[in-house]
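Retro notes
What went well: the complex prediction finally ran end to end.
Inputs used:
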Amino acid sequence: MPEVKILDEVCKGCGLCCDDVCPVDILILAPDRINSSGYHPAMITDMEKCKACGFCYMVCPEPAIEVYK
Amino acid sequence: MKKIFSRPEGLTDTLMRYCPGCGHGIVHRIVGELLIELDIRERTVGIAPVGCSVFADEYFNCDMIQPPHGRGPAVSAGIKRARPECIVFSYQGDGDLASIGTAEIIHAAARNENITVVFINNAIFGMTGGQMAPTTLPGMKSTTSQKGRDVRKQGYPMKVCEMLASLDGPYYLERCAVDTVKNVIKTKKALKMAFQNQLDDKGFCLIEVLSMCPTGWGQTPVQAKKWIGEVMSAYYPLGVYRDRSKEAK
């Protein structure tokens, strides 16, 4: 079962991973919470759909995404 | 559960102080991964530029030097000649390489120094506040060309890969981008080849990477990403400009 962890404090909420990158489209910027720097971090909406392709990790400039399989 | 993708050991744990959506982080991550994949981290010397990535010495987990503005290729060449067992890469932006460091990069390429140059082209001077750079596109707005770059007054942009490809010296020149997943994978492949060529003692390799500067361009990160694909890569065509390994066959 793949799992994606987003490091909330590292994420700067640029949204590059949320735009046409995820093949199953499960990444969004958290609408209701911010990290200590004031950014809305990315979050996963439906972990069960994840295929662990790592595309989100590849476009993340921080990188604030860890992928487990 | 096995970790398959995470921050590579080639990068330190220091959080990068780039703006959200900046392409530098993606290229840092690729170089950090390659230092581990090629098992060269212990003997690599990196050259940090002057520009946004001036603090690259805090981010790369290898030996780093920060020479004067634009002198990266000259310092790299000196290190490589004095210590040929070291792997030397010069990480430079367009203000550093295409503006003040033009002489150094041209002569390092002409001498075919056995170094790897990572050239980040974001068409603007990012650190100083989005002024017009030698790589700013015609008609592109910046803080010092507020009506767009007028080629009759400010001239035409410099295409570094095409310029260096006119020399006989360089071994490998390629232009990539980090706007889409496909291009990020291609960039990694190109950088891997550039480091491998240095390991094989082939000669000068330069990888130009078209990179986002959302703050300098006055766009959101997603708009900036699309702008690279639609506008910037039309003016700066992606591709291989010199590959001596294929010419030899």
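What we learned: Chain B has a mean pLDDT of 94.
What to try next: split runs per interface for comparison.
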